[in-house]
Amino acid sequence: MGTVVEKFGEMVRKNVEKNPSRALELLRAGYFISGKQMKYLPKHQLLPHQKYAAVVSNRAIRAPLTSPDHSAVVSVFTPCELLHAMGIMPQFTEGLACYINGAKAESAFIRFAENAGIPQTYCSYHKILIGAALSGVLPKPRFVVNTTLACDANNSTFRLLADIWKVPHFTLDIPYRSSDREVSYVAEQMREFVLFLEETLSQKLSEKMLRNVIRRENRSIRLYQEFFNELSQKVLPNDMTSEMYKIFLTHVLLGTGEAEHYFELLVDDAQKSEPSNNEIRILWVHSLPFWQRSMKNIINFNPRVQLLCCDLNFDVMVELNEENPYESIAKKLLSHSLGGENTRRTDRILEMAKLLHADGIVYFCHWGCKHTLGGANAAKCILEDAGFPTLILDGDGCDRGNVNDGQMSTRMQAFLEILEAKK
Protein backbone atom coordinates (compact mmCIF):
# COMPACT_ATOMS: atom_id res chain seq x y z
CA MET A 1 0.00 0.00 0.00
CA GLY A 2 2.87 2.36 0.82
CA THR A 3 4.27 2.15 -2.71
CA VAL A 4 0.83 2.84 -4.20
CA VAL A 5 0.35 5.95 -2.04
CA GLU A 6 3.88 7.15 -2.86
CA LYS A 7 3.12 6.88 -6.57
CA PHE A 8 -0.24 8.56 -6.11
CA GLY A 9 1.35 11.44 -4.19
CA GLU A 10 3.97 11.87 -6.90
CA MET A 11 1.22 12.14 -9.54
CA VAL A 12 -0.62 14.79 -7.53
CA ARG A 13 2.57 16.77 -6.86
CA LYS A 14 3.52 16.81 -10.55
CA ASN A 15 0.15 18.29 -11.49
CA VAL A 16 -0.18 20.99 -8.82
CA GLU A 17 1.51 23.68 -10.92
CA LYS A 18 1.05 22.52 -14.49
CA ASN A 19 -2.47 21.06 -14.30
CA PRO A 20 -4.31 21.90 -11.05
CA SER A 21 -7.65 20.57 -12.29
CA ARG A 22 -5.99 17.20 -12.87
CA ALA A 23 -4.51 17.31 -9.35
CA LEU A 24 -8.00 17.93 -7.96
CA GLU A 25 -9.42 15.03 -9.98
CA LEU A 26 -6.73 12.76 -8.59
CA LEU A 27 -7.42 13.83 -5.01
CA ARG A 28 -11.16 13.33 -5.45
CA ALA A 29 -10.61 9.86 -6.89
CA GLY A 30 -8.02 8.92 -4.30
CA TYR A 31 -10.18 9.99 -1.37
CA PHE A 32 -13.19 8.19 -2.88
CA ILE A 33 -11.23 4.94 -3.12
CA SER A 34 -9.71 5.30 0.34
CA GLY A 35 -13.19 6.00 1.72
CA LYS A 36 -14.45 2.71 0.29
CA GLN A 37 -11.43 0.92 1.73
CA MET A 38 -12.10 2.46 5.16
CA LYS A 39 -15.74 1.36 5.02
CA TYR A 40 -15.38 -2.16 3.66
CA LEU A 41 -11.78 -3.14 4.46
CA PRO A 42 -10.84 -1.26 7.63
CA LYS A 43 -7.75 -2.07 9.67
CA HIS A 44 -8.49 -4.97 11.99
CA GLN A 45 -7.27 -3.15 15.14
CA LEU A 46 -9.87 -0.40 14.83
CA LEU A 47 -12.86 -0.32 17.15
CA PRO A 48 -16.35 0.50 15.77
CA HIS A 49 -16.15 4.19 16.72
CA GLN A 50 -12.73 4.50 15.04
CA LYS A 51 -13.92 2.82 11.83
CA TYR A 52 -16.93 5.12 11.74
CA ALA A 53 -14.83 8.24 12.36
CA ALA A 54 -12.57 7.34 9.45
CA VAL A 55 -15.52 7.00 7.07
CA VAL A 56 -17.29 10.17 8.25
CA SER A 57 -14.10 12.27 8.14
CA ASN A 58 -13.36 11.05 4.63
CA ARG A 59 -16.86 12.02 3.54
CA ALA A 60 -16.50 15.44 5.17
CA ILE A 61 -13.31 16.12 3.20
CA ARG A 62 -14.68 14.87 -0.12
CA ALA A 63 -18.00 16.74 -0.04
CA PRO A 64 -16.53 20.27 -0.37
CA LEU A 65 -14.18 19.07 -3.12
CA THR A 66 -17.14 17.68 -5.06
CA SER A 67 -19.79 20.32 -4.27
CA PRO A 68 -17.90 23.52 -3.37
CA ASP A 69 -21.02 25.69 -3.84
CA HIS A 70 -22.45 24.00 -0.76
CA SER A 71 -19.30 24.39 1.33
CA ALA A 72 -17.38 26.96 3.35
CA VAL A 73 -13.73 26.99 4.36
CA VAL A 74 -13.54 27.60 8.11
CA SER A 75 -11.04 27.71 10.95
CA VAL A 76 -11.19 24.75 13.32
CA PHE A 77 -12.82 26.64 16.22
CA THR A 78 -15.56 28.22 14.11
CA PRO A 79 -19.02 27.45 15.57
CA CYS A 80 -20.60 25.49 12.73
CA GLU A 81 -24.10 25.08 14.18
CA LEU A 82 -25.48 27.73 11.80
CA LEU A 83 -23.76 26.14 8.81
CA HIS A 84 -25.34 22.75 9.52
CA ALA A 85 -28.74 24.38 9.98
CA MET A 86 -28.36 25.90 6.50
CA GLY A 87 -26.97 22.85 4.71
CA ILE A 88 -23.37 24.05 4.33
CA MET A 89 -20.49 21.58 4.75
CA PRO A 90 -17.44 23.09 6.51
CA GLN A 91 -13.95 22.39 5.19
CA PHE A 92 -11.36 23.21 7.87
CA THR A 93 -7.67 23.99 7.66
CA GLU A 94 -6.17 21.18 9.70
CA GLY A 95 -8.47 18.51 8.27
CA LEU A 96 -7.69 19.33 4.64
CA ALA A 97 -3.96 19.68 5.33
CA CYS A 98 -3.83 16.29 7.04
CA TYR A 99 -5.67 14.61 4.19
CA ILE A 100 -3.25 16.12 1.68
CA ASN A 101 -0.44 14.80 3.88
CA GLY A 102 -2.16 11.39 3.82
CA ALA A 103 -1.93 11.52 0.03
CA LYS A 104 1.80 12.27 0.40
CA ALA A 105 1.32 15.43 -1.64
CA GLU A 106 1.83 18.17 0.95
CA SER A 107 5.31 19.21 -0.19
CA ALA A 108 4.03 20.60 -3.51
CA PHE A 109 1.45 22.82 -1.79
CA ILE A 110 3.91 24.02 0.85
CA ARG A 111 6.43 24.86 -1.87
CA PHE A 112 3.77 26.72 -3.87
CA ALA A 113 2.84 28.83 -0.84
CA GLU A 114 6.45 29.59 0.09
CA ASN A 115 7.30 30.52 -3.51
CA ALA A 116 4.40 32.98 -3.36
CA GLY A 117 5.94 34.67 -0.32
CA ILE A 118 4.46 32.80 2.65
CA PRO A 119 7.22 32.55 5.32
CA GLN A 120 8.83 29.19 6.05
CA THR A 121 8.04 29.78 9.72
CA TYR A 122 4.29 29.95 9.03
CA CYS A 123 2.06 27.13 10.32
CA SER A 124 2.35 24.10 8.03
CA TYR A 125 -1.40 23.45 8.10
CA HIS A 126 -2.04 26.97 6.85
CA LYS A 127 0.72 26.80 4.23
CA ILE A 128 -0.86 23.69 2.72
CA LEU A 129 -4.30 25.34 2.61
CA ILE A 130 -2.90 28.53 1.08
CA GLY A 131 -0.89 26.54 -1.46
CA ALA A 132 -4.01 24.56 -2.41
CA ALA A 133 -5.94 27.80 -2.96
CA LEU A 134 -3.18 29.73 -4.77
CA SER A 135 -2.42 26.84 -7.11
CA GLY A 136 -6.06 26.53 -8.13
CA VAL A 137 -6.33 22.94 -6.92
CA LEU A 138 -8.81 23.68 -4.13
CA PRO A 139 -12.14 24.76 -5.64
CA LYS A 140 -13.69 28.07 -4.61
CA PRO A 141 -16.15 27.69 -1.70
CA ARG A 142 -19.28 29.76 -1.19
CA PHE A 143 -17.58 31.83 1.53
CA VAL A 144 -14.89 31.69 4.22
CA VAL A 145 -15.25 32.25 7.97
CA ASN A 146 -12.84 32.22 10.89
CA THR A 147 -12.57 33.09 14.54
CA THR A 148 -9.68 34.88 16.22
CA LEU A 149 -9.43 32.12 18.84
CA ALA A 150 -5.93 30.86 19.68
CA CYS A 151 -4.40 30.91 16.20
CA ASP A 152 -2.90 34.23 15.11
CA ALA A 153 -2.52 32.91 11.56
CA ASN A 154 -6.29 32.76 11.07
CA ASN A 155 -6.88 36.42 10.26
CA SER A 156 -4.04 36.62 7.72
CA THR A 157 -4.84 33.26 6.12
CA PHE A 158 -8.57 33.78 5.74
CA ARG A 159 -8.25 37.34 4.45
CA LEU A 160 -5.86 35.98 1.83
CA LEU A 161 -8.22 33.12 0.93
CA ALA A 162 -11.13 35.53 0.48
CA ASP A 163 -8.95 37.66 -1.79
CA ILE A 164 -7.75 34.68 -3.84
CA TRP A 165 -11.24 33.32 -4.40
CA LYS A 166 -13.11 36.67 -4.37
CA VAL A 167 -15.69 35.26 -1.96
CA PRO A 168 -17.40 36.79 1.11
CA HIS A 169 -15.47 36.60 4.38
CA PHE A 170 -16.74 36.76 7.95
CA THR A 171 -14.58 36.95 11.09
CA LEU A 172 -15.81 36.27 14.60
CA ASP A 173 -13.70 38.33 16.99
CA ILE A 174 -13.39 36.48 20.31
CA PRO A 175 -12.16 38.72 23.16
CA TYR A 176 -9.35 37.70 25.47
CA ARG A 177 -11.47 37.96 28.62
CA SER A 178 -15.00 36.85 29.45
CA SER A 179 -17.74 38.85 31.17
CA ASP A 180 -21.37 39.77 30.48
CA ARG A 181 -20.11 42.56 28.25
CA GLU A 182 -18.03 40.18 26.13
CA VAL A 183 -20.90 37.68 25.93
CA SER A 184 -23.17 40.40 24.53
CA TYR A 185 -20.44 41.47 22.10
CA VAL A 186 -19.94 37.96 20.68
CA ALA A 187 -23.69 37.21 20.67
CA GLU A 188 -24.27 40.31 18.55
CA GLN A 189 -21.61 39.06 16.14
CA MET A 190 -23.47 35.74 15.93
CA ARG A 191 -26.61 37.61 14.90
CA GLU A 192 -24.58 39.48 12.29
CA PHE A 193 -23.25 36.11 11.14
CA VAL A 194 -26.84 34.96 10.57
CA LEU A 195 -27.49 38.02 8.38
CA PHE A 196 -24.23 37.35 6.52
CA LEU A 197 -25.27 33.75 5.83
CA GLU A 198 -28.79 34.67 4.78
CA GLU A 199 -27.50 37.30 2.36
CA THR A 200 -24.70 35.12 0.97
CA LEU A 201 -26.88 32.02 0.55
CA SER A 202 -30.10 33.86 -0.37
CA GLN A 203 -32.08 31.82 2.15
CA LYS A 204 -33.49 32.33 5.63
CA LEU A 205 -32.19 30.46 8.65
CA SER A 206 -34.69 27.89 9.90
CA GLU A 207 -35.00 28.22 13.67
CA LYS A 208 -36.36 24.67 13.74
CA MET A 209 -33.27 23.34 11.98
CA LEU A 210 -31.01 25.24 14.38
CA ARG A 211 -32.89 23.78 17.36
CA ASN A 212 -32.38 20.29 15.97
CA VAL A 213 -28.65 20.93 15.53
CA ILE A 214 -28.36 22.20 19.11
CA ARG A 215 -30.29 19.23 20.50
CA ARG A 216 -28.00 16.79 18.69
CA GLU A 217 -24.97 18.71 19.94
CA ASN A 218 -26.18 18.64 23.54
CA ARG A 219 -26.87 14.91 23.39
CA SER A 220 -23.38 14.43 21.93
CA ILE A 221 -21.77 16.44 24.74
CA ARG A 222 -23.57 14.37 27.38
CA LEU A 223 -22.39 11.16 25.71
CA TYR A 224 -18.85 12.51 25.51
CA GLN A 225 -18.83 13.31 29.22
CA GLU A 226 -20.04 9.78 29.90
CA PHE A 227 -17.19 8.45 27.76
CA PHE A 228 -14.54 10.28 29.76
CA ASN A 229 -15.97 8.91 33.00
CA GLU A 230 -15.66 5.41 31.53
CA LEU A 231 -12.16 6.05 30.18
CA SER A 232 -10.94 7.11 33.62
CA GLN A 233 -10.95 3.45 34.68
CA LYS A 234 -10.51 1.70 31.32
CA VAL A 235 -7.95 0.94 28.65
CA LEU A 236 -9.19 1.68 25.13
CA PRO A 237 -6.96 0.85 22.12
CA ASN A 238 -6.16 4.06 20.29
CA ASP A 239 -3.98 5.50 17.54
CA MET A 240 -2.90 8.98 16.51
CA THR A 241 -4.90 9.01 13.27
CA SER A 242 -8.15 8.17 15.07
CA GLU A 243 -7.45 10.93 17.57
CA MET A 244 -7.07 13.40 14.69
CA TYR A 245 -10.29 12.14 13.09
CA LYS A 246 -12.00 12.85 16.40
CA ILE A 247 -11.33 16.58 15.85
CA PHE A 248 -13.83 16.46 12.97
CA LEU A 249 -16.51 15.15 15.35
CA THR A 250 -15.73 17.41 18.32
CA HIS A 251 -15.57 20.56 16.20
CA VAL A 252 -16.81 21.15 12.65
CA LEU A 253 -19.26 18.20 12.58
CA LEU A 254 -20.60 18.67 16.12
CA GLY A 255 -24.39 18.98 15.96
CA THR A 256 -24.79 16.59 13.03
CA GLY A 257 -26.41 13.16 13.17
CA GLU A 258 -23.08 11.62 12.22
CA ALA A 259 -21.36 13.16 15.23
CA GLU A 260 -24.09 12.02 17.60
CA HIS A 261 -23.84 8.45 16.31
CA TYR A 262 -20.05 8.58 16.69
CA PHE A 263 -20.38 9.47 20.37
CA GLU A 264 -22.88 6.66 20.86
CA LEU A 265 -20.34 4.22 19.42
CA LEU A 266 -17.56 5.79 21.50
CA VAL A 267 -19.45 5.24 24.76
CA ASP A 268 -20.39 1.71 23.76
CA ASP A 269 -16.77 0.82 22.96
CA ALA A 270 -15.60 2.30 26.26
CA GLN A 271 -18.20 0.36 28.23
CA LYS A 272 -17.07 -2.87 26.58
CA SER A 273 -13.35 -2.20 27.06
CA GLU A 274 -11.09 -3.80 29.66
CA PRO A 275 -10.29 -2.24 33.05
CA SER A 276 -7.06 -0.30 33.34
CA ASN A 277 -4.16 -2.70 33.96
CA ASN A 278 -1.03 -0.75 34.84
CA GLU A 279 -0.50 0.53 31.28
CA ILE A 280 1.31 3.85 30.69
CA ARG A 281 -1.44 6.45 30.31
CA ILE A 282 -0.49 9.41 28.10
CA LEU A 283 -2.39 12.66 27.69
CA TRP A 284 -1.43 14.51 24.50
CA VAL A 285 -1.43 18.28 24.05
CA HIS A 286 -2.14 19.82 20.63
CA SER A 287 -2.25 18.04 17.26
CA LEU A 288 -0.57 14.69 16.62
CA PRO A 289 2.09 13.66 14.04
CA PHE A 290 -0.17 10.84 12.84
CA TRP A 291 1.85 10.32 9.66
CA GLN A 292 5.26 9.78 11.29
CA ARG A 293 6.19 6.09 11.18
CA SER A 294 8.59 6.15 14.14
CA MET A 295 5.96 7.75 16.37
CA LYS A 296 3.24 5.41 15.11
CA ASN A 297 5.41 2.43 16.02
CA ILE A 298 5.72 3.73 19.57
CA ILE A 299 2.12 4.82 20.21
CA ASN A 300 -0.44 3.23 17.91
CA PHE A 301 -2.27 0.27 19.48
CA ASN A 302 0.63 -0.31 21.84
CA PRO A 303 -0.70 -2.57 24.65
CA ARG A 304 1.68 -0.89 27.09
CA VAL A 305 0.77 2.69 26.10
CA GLN A 306 -2.71 4.18 26.38
CA LEU A 307 -3.12 7.32 24.28
CA LEU A 308 -5.95 8.85 26.30
CA CYS A 309 -6.89 11.92 24.30
CA CYS A 310 -5.47 15.14 22.89
CA ASP A 311 -6.50 18.38 24.54
CA LEU A 312 -7.98 19.76 21.32
CA ASN A 313 -10.70 17.15 21.79
CA PHE A 314 -11.78 18.43 25.20
CA ASP A 315 -11.15 22.16 24.69
CA VAL A 316 -14.77 23.13 25.33
CA MET A 317 -17.59 20.80 26.40
CA VAL A 318 -20.65 22.88 27.27
CA GLU A 319 -24.29 22.40 26.36
CA LEU A 320 -26.12 25.12 24.44
CA ASN A 321 -29.47 26.72 25.24
CA GLU A 322 -31.80 26.24 22.29
CA GLU A 323 -34.03 29.06 23.60
CA ASN A 324 -31.10 31.48 23.63
CA PRO A 325 -28.71 30.11 20.97
CA TYR A 326 -26.55 33.15 20.19
CA GLU A 327 -25.73 34.00 23.80
CA SER A 328 -25.02 30.35 24.60
CA ILE A 329 -22.73 29.96 21.57
CA ALA A 330 -20.99 33.16 22.68
CA LYS A 331 -20.45 31.71 26.17
CA LYS A 332 -19.11 28.52 24.59
CA LEU A 333 -16.56 30.46 22.53
CA LEU A 334 -15.51 32.62 25.47
CA SER A 335 -15.03 29.59 27.74
CA HIS A 336 -12.74 27.86 25.25
CA SER A 337 -9.61 26.46 26.92
CA LEU A 338 -7.36 27.96 24.22
CA GLY A 339 -8.79 31.43 24.75
CA GLY A 340 -7.57 33.95 27.30
CA GLU A 341 -4.46 33.40 29.38
CA ASN A 342 -2.35 30.30 28.82
CA THR A 343 -3.17 29.11 32.34
CA ARG A 344 -6.74 28.45 31.18
CA ARG A 345 -5.47 25.77 28.81
CA THR A 346 -3.10 24.37 31.42
CA ASP A 347 -5.87 24.21 34.02
CA ARG A 348 -8.06 22.24 31.60
CA ILE A 349 -5.22 19.83 30.79
CA LEU A 350 -4.58 19.35 34.50
CA GLU A 351 -8.27 18.74 35.20
CA MET A 352 -8.44 16.01 32.53
CA ALA A 353 -5.09 14.49 33.51
CA LYS A 354 -6.47 13.97 37.02
CA LEU A 355 -9.78 12.57 35.79
CA LEU A 356 -8.13 10.13 33.36
CA HIS A 357 -5.31 9.14 35.74
CA ALA A 358 -2.61 10.15 33.26
CA ASP A 359 0.93 8.99 34.03
CA GLY A 360 2.49 11.63 31.81
CA ILE A 361 1.78 14.41 29.34
CA VAL A 362 3.28 14.97 25.88
CA TYR A 363 3.19 18.67 24.97
CA PHE A 364 3.55 18.67 21.18
CA CYS A 365 4.83 21.94 19.72
CA HIS A 366 3.66 21.95 16.11
CA TRP A 367 5.77 24.01 13.73
CA GLY A 368 4.60 27.61 13.50
CA CYS A 369 2.02 27.44 16.31
CA LYS A 370 3.00 30.41 18.45
CA HIS A 371 0.19 29.78 20.94
CA THR A 372 1.50 26.31 21.82
CA LEU A 373 5.19 27.17 21.58
CA GLY A 374 4.82 30.26 23.74
CA GLY A 375 3.04 28.46 26.55
CA ALA A 376 5.03 25.22 26.59
CA ASN A 377 7.60 25.88 29.32
CA ALA A 378 5.19 27.61 31.68
CA ALA A 379 2.70 24.76 31.23
CA LYS A 380 5.39 22.15 31.85
CA CYS A 381 6.28 23.77 35.19
CA ILE A 382 2.65 23.85 36.34
CA LEU A 383 1.91 20.29 35.21
CA GLU A 384 5.04 18.82 36.75
CA ASP A 385 4.48 20.70 40.00
CA ALA A 386 1.09 18.96 40.08
CA GLY A 387 2.79 15.57 39.70
CA PHE A 388 2.49 14.95 35.96
CA PRO A 389 5.82 14.40 34.14
CA THR A 390 5.70 16.40 30.90
CA LEU A 391 7.67 16.01 27.68
CA ILE A 392 7.90 19.02 25.36
CA LEU A 393 8.21 17.51 21.89
CA ASP A 394 8.96 19.70 18.87
CA GLY A 395 7.68 18.47 15.52
CA ASP A 396 5.34 19.06 12.61
CA GLY A 397 1.82 17.75 12.34
CA CYS A 398 1.71 17.58 8.55
CA ASP A 399 5.04 18.37 6.81
CA ARG A 400 7.31 15.37 6.24
CA GLY A 401 10.18 17.63 5.28
CA ASN A 402 10.27 19.44 8.60
CA VAL A 403 11.01 16.91 11.35
CA ASN A 404 13.99 15.44 13.17
CA ASP A 405 12.60 11.93 13.21
CA GLY A 406 15.41 10.22 15.10
CA GLN A 407 15.53 12.78 17.88
CA MET A 408 11.76 12.74 18.34
CA SER A 409 11.50 8.96 18.62
CA THR A 410 14.52 8.75 20.95
CA ARG A 411 13.08 11.36 23.31
CA MET A 412 9.64 9.74 23.23
CA GLN A 413 11.06 6.31 24.02
CA ALA A 414 13.14 7.71 26.87
CA PHE A 415 10.09 9.49 28.31
CA LEU A 416 8.06 6.27 28.26
CA GLU A 417 10.91 4.42 29.97
CA ILE A 418 10.91 7.03 32.75
CA LEU A 419 7.17 6.63 33.20
CA GLU A 420 7.50 2.84 33.12
CA ALA A 421 10.07 2.99 35.91
CA LYS A 422 7.61 4.95 38.05
CA LYS A 423 4.85 2.33 37.76
UniProtKB/TrEMBL annotation:
Family of this protein: Belongs to the FldB/FldC dehydratase alpha/beta subunit family.
Entry GO MF terms: hydro-lyase activity
InterPro entries assigned: FldB/FldC_alpha/beta (IPR010327)
Entry-linked Pfam families: HGD-D
Lineage top rank: taxon: Bacteria
Gene3D superfamilies: 3.40.50.11890, 3.40.50.11900
Species for this entry: Acidilutibacter cellobiosedens
Protein name per the record: 2-hydroxyacyl-CoA dehydratase
UniProt cofactor(s): [4Fe-4S] cluster
Coiled coil: none
